[in-house]
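User: Before I run my own analysis I want an independent prediction to cross-check against. Here's the chain; please return only the structure tokens and, at the end, one sentence I can use as a sanity check.
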Amino acid sequence: MDTQPRRSSVSRRRMLTVALGGAATVALPAPAWAATGQRPGAALPPTLTGHDIDVAKRVSAERALDHLKVLSIGIGPRIGGTRSERVAAGYIAGVLDKLGYDVDLQPFPVADKFLAQLGSPRGLPTDLNWQCGASPHAALDTKVRGDVVDAKLGGEADYPADVRGKILLIDYVADTRETVVNLAVARKAAAVIFLPADLVEPRRASAFSPQLPGLATTPAPIPVVGVAQAQKHRLRALLAARKLSLTLSTTAHRGLTSHNVLANQPRRSSTGPVVMVSAHYDTVIGAPGANDDGSGTVLCLELARVLRKLPTNAQLRFALWGSEEQGLIGSRYYVAQLPQPERDRILAVYQNDMVATSWDPATRYWLLSFDGLANRATNEVAAAATRLGYASRISPVTLRGSSDHQSFQEVGIASANFSWRGEESPALLEPPYHSPEDTIAKNISLERLQVSLELIGSAAYTTAR
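Assistant: Structure tokens:
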């Protein structure tokens, strides 16, 4: 396989087609402050430099929201290596290409994916996404339809004697998973929908592809899928209110290739310093990924628009990573391909992951470093926060990996992840995290996105000058 980056050839027509497909009405309160005014939640008035003002007066969370509608609503879940991720990569590349950047798509192989989609002849509520995971050890590339029965734990006494052709809701228990699937097959059920155990709030369980190792050599002849906690409760509520019929389709995605989208300012020295602004654009199963990490992705697109014509000495490079949710695969692949002289050119990497949640307790903006130590990226953002009057809202540099900054810090490149999270700990994430509820309507604050744009824009511009 050719693993070198290739120049994007995404057409403007295709980009606009995708954008129109995602055009939906989402009303959010717009940020309303002057470039030199005191920000909401800031402890002090700003003391901005002229360069800070150059950024602050140009960045627009509302403009970024237009891109987020395409990614989160028009495309939805963007699963690494599947068509949905490719469409998203094409859209992102098209935006950056139109802005005048030299854009490359860097391919790399990723693992097979097993996905499912739920529907209903009467329609399912549209405030949730209804993608879920399919078991690789059950029927794939198939579609069934049937009335739903709540089979509870899936034992002999948990559902009526005749479940022929029915779709069973069964609480997932790892120790009994193969047993209950075999019983459902013996009773001629049409499919099994596994329901996860509830997590401790504010966390909620994600959709999953159930593993049935005991059936690996002889897969179950019916579909077996795993839904998210939010989908579980909605399905049970719908069933309690009326008769519920579902359609359930499963798809195996094999031989997959994911892509990083890389955009460089053109006509720059091939040996000079580089400043990187990055995010990941893929999602977990069933999550529209508005905040994780559509928010970081559109921050990159908006800063690419604003910074492209401001004078800099360093080259600006924007990177949107594929397949982060599978273990930082895209960013690690990118770093592994960089010769040491290219690594040495990078002054700082500003990784943006979940920068716009509307969850009320997420009042702290976290500076997250894989080694727990300050570096140029954390220092520049902390300094920008002081100039913007936000120093009291910024965390100390805190040890945490689990995003693409880790790939760079593992090889000694200054990098950090920046994110709005709960006050007590960076592990305190919003309830819609990794769930079908990670939507613009339920999990995006334009005010927080605007502040993130100003913080990262000011820091990156300062570094690049």
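Sanity check: The longest strand covers residues 102-110.
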